Amino acid sequence: MQQVPSTHVRHPMWPIYLCVAVTALGIGIINPLIPHLLEQNGADEFIVGLSTSVMFASLVLTGMPIGRTIDKFGIRLFLIVGLISYTVAMLAMPWTNNIPLFFMWRIFEGIGWSCVWTAAETYVSRVSSPAQRGHNTAVYGMSLASGTAAGPIIGTAVYEWTKNPVHPFLVAVAAAIVATVIVVLVVPEPHVAHTEHESGGVSFKITRPLILPLAIAFLYGYGTLSLVSLLPTLNYSNWELGTLISVTVIANIVAQVPIGRMLDRYGYRPLLIGSLSLLSAAALFSTLHPPFLLTLFLGMLLGAFAGTLYPIGLAVLAARVPPAKLGGASGMFTVCYGLGSFVGPALTGGVMAMVGDKHSDQALFGTIGCLVLALLGLMMTGIDRVNVKEEHPVSVASSGIKPPM
Question: Where in the sequence is the signal peptide annotated (predicted)?
């Protein structure tokens, strides 16, 4: 593959991390408020849950087409379109009293999220050198985790201060507008020379090199959304629940960059086997009703090593897919994350309801632990070993505006 000359061209990563953090921040800000808005308009619990399912469904259905289109028309366009779609949805939702129209804005939100994530992941994968890929994807994961963690805190603080449910949405809108302006002014378009063989993008057929990263994306979405959605239903006091969530989130954020550096140094396989082993052990041990202090330690392990799965999967994907096809591959990655996020809470919640309140914690942690153990078992059989040539990154062509240092 021919490379684009890189003379006097920079590819700043911080605006990409900012875009991801902003979308995650907005989701964290508004999610606690959406049940309140819908219930004010006569919605029941089923409608509230369905609104989240609709958002994830739009993410799943649009991820792959967006990824393939990115390969043809470029990354910058979809970062901007995604942020605009997301901004429009955030601005419209608090003023919408009609439930079907509210669902339409949730669809817009999912499309915006899909555009931003797929484009950002393609950018990071395309411009990262093999020696820095683990570090860059880890910072990407840290940005995502930080935005997700900060969102509920900021949203709750703004609401408590103003007593107006519209104002937290406006905070999300302002952050998205700032991110859009930065993308327009700072982010150049990474170009890659397409060969005839590569110009078609990634097909919908999942080839063996893609199985491992796509399985990681599904597992990450399944586990994290199941924990976020269902952990509050367990028999913990408010103080215990808040402490457990805080420890888990902090461990998730802190572990990202060290794991990314280890990924660059030692490769994905020993790191992934170690992460999956510790994850499955922590989850399965949590089913034994350990003392709360030990539960906090297990939560720290779950947060630290679950959080590293996403950047590891993204780094493996980037190493196995030619740069000209990274848009389509990133779209598939987003789709698998969305599928896991969609299936996880419903399936695990169904298992918890079936076994009853007495064993609901065993159902939650046991289901996640067994799923992690299954992927670890597949890795031990060598299903992740493929004979593919790792592609070198491409340079970034100038957008006409010189990026800052």
Answer: none
